[in-house]
Amino acid sequence: MHGESTSRKNHPSLCSDFFLFGFLIVFLLSFHHGCCKSDIHNGYRLTLAVPVEYSVGFIGRAFLMETNQMAPNFKAALSVEAVNGRYSCSLEVFLGDVKVWNSGHYSQFYVSEKCVLQLTERGDLLLKGPKNRVGWRTGTSRQGVERLQILKTGNLVLLDALNLIKWQSFNFPTDVILWGQSLNVATRLTSFPTNSTEFYTFEIQHDKIALYLHSGKWNYSYWEFKPSKNRNITYIFLGTKGLEIYNDKAKKIAQIFSSPLDPLRFLTLGNKTGNLGLYYYSDDEHNFKAAFQAINNTCDLPLACKPCGICTFSNSCSSIHLLTQKDKGNSGCGEGVPGEVLCGREKVEMLELHGVTSVLKIAPKRVNVSKDLCANLCIDDCECVAALYSSDVRECKIYGVVIGVKQIERGYGLSYMVKVPKGTQTSHGKSNLKKWVIILVGVVDGLIILLVFGGLTYYLVQKRRKKLLAIETDNNTT
Ligand SMILES: *[C@@H]1O[C@H](CO)[C@@H](O)[C@H](O)[C@H]1NC(C)=O
Ligand SMILES: *[C@@H]1O[C@H](CO)[C@@H](O)[C@H](O)[C@H]1NC(C)=O
Ligand SMILES: *[C@@H]1O[C@H](CO)[C@@H](O)[C@H](O)[C@H]1NC(C)=O
Ligand SMILES: *[C@@H]1O[C@H](CO)[C@@H](O)[C@H](O)[C@H]1NC(C)=O
Ligand SMILES: *[C@@H]1O[C@H](CO)[C@@H](O)[C@H](O)[C@H]1NC(C)=O
Ligand SMILES: *[C@@H]1O[C@H](CO)[C@@H](O)[C@H](O)[C@H]1NC(C)=O
Q1: Is 222 in the pocket of ligand 3 (CB under 6 A)?
Q2: For domain 309-468, which architecture applies?
Q3: What residues line ligand 4, using a CB cutoff of 6 Å?
Q4: How far apart are CA 300 and CA 315, in angstroms?
Q5: Do domains 1-172 and 173-295 have the same CATH topology?
Q6: What's the CATH number for 173-295?
Q7: Cβ of 198 below 6 Å from ligand 2
Q8: Does domain 1-172 correspond to CATH entry 2.90.10.10?
Q9: Facing residues of 114 across strands?
Q10: Average pLDDT per 10 consecutive residues for the chain, totaling 478 residues
């Protein structure tokens, strides 16, 4: 990934490029079938050598087919990439420099020695490692497949003698929808899972299209778009001017329009930000530019800040620091030490932060409850680390992560509560000197660093803090 971001260049005239230690070394592999036609036939075989030693950022890539179009065109490549300490072997499709499909998106095929792509005589397309170990296949043996072709739409297809499609990459969407591609209800795009615990999805549901953050076994929606009048969605389609939404009679029921006049090329779910974007190609600047982004305010992105961070009005991150004398800096705003059970009224309590909310919506929320009950629901739930209570609608949301927290104007009747070890808060009136809390807000933002050294200082600061900070703890709610 490192090599890619620093040194990937477009070499339309060459069929392969290798990235080694971040430097670009270009090889020209000689192919039996010549360079980059738009199809290959049964019996085709291509082998890439895998380095003996692991080197971070290594990418070895051989382009085997490309479309005959103006730049940026589509290319199919066999790649060996350094991923998580091993080498992954995959078949990929590129539009210009952008990876738009990858056979290893959901499950990497790790190899040593060699990475082989083969279209067998029986018409099965497969990836193999040493000792003929198969890591991925289309499973199209004996279906009359005669060739693999990359279509002008970027769809990678296996065709029979009558040009009927027997397998196509469009049926296995990853994190991109190309122009002309559709996606059915109850399917999804998934961001490349850099770590298995947190990833994003773009879901097509009957009543809406929505973005979700998945964290552990929990999921949270952070953006959604609903057709009016509760119309039922059957599929979506990426058209020239926007993302079109259709019902079961193939009638367009809604559309997300993009702004520029240039035709859209693809939709992607950002693997770092989790934002959904529609992109066009700028001929002047020779790169892809966003024509629409689902989320246009940084603080509305779930991971705008690290866990336990607060995204402030100036779009910077402040951290929620809770220090107890017992374990300095380790209470991690309630997420605790792995393995430690964080629940029970003797062990934990809820610390309330004013002037903040969460951008994460959660489906199984509790309604018509009191604030105390909401706090107790979180205290008793060992997986809960934070809760958001809305006093207007008496609604309680329970979270398994302290993520997506952002600053808002006060006075919306929202209370964001973070689970902390019991005794973190000082009881009103008599301050507990042994266990105290420092809430640092605005370290980055307001250049305000607040240090509390004892009960006396604590009192003085209490008075000032109300004026200085928009976000503070409420000590009156124990
Ligand atoms: C995110 O996606 C881009 C383009 O698809 C890819 O080049 C990059 O490696 C991905 N980043 C991560 C962290 O997976
Ligand atoms: C993956 O985990 C690391 C910490 O282990 C975190 O910093 C990073 O944001 C996570 N990536 C995603 C895409 O969630
Ligand atoms: C979110 O989690 C719930 C409960 O585990 C599950 O029923 C639902 O299908 C999930 N939603 C998505 C979009 O994955
Ligand atoms: C939408 O259509 C599906 C399948 O036809 C059906 O199961 C579902 O109940 C419908 N949803 C709504 C909200 O009408
Ligand atoms: C940002 O998004 C909101 C709704 O998501 C929209 O109303 C607003 O016009 C957008 N602003 C810009 C500058 O695109
Ligand atoms: C909410 O709770 C109150 C009393 O606890 C009850 O009278 C009322 O009917 C409830 N409202 C709903 C919508 O459940």
Answers
A1: no
A2: 3-Layer(bba) Sandwich (3.50)
A3: 206-207, 230, 232
A4: 10
A5: yes
A6: 2.90.10.10
A7: yes
A8: yes
A9: 49
A10: 35 36 34 62 96 95 93 95 94 96 94 96 97 96 96 96 96 96 94 77 96 89 94 96 95 89 93 92 93 94 88 86 42 49 81 89 85 93 90 92 89 87 56 34 35 36 41 37
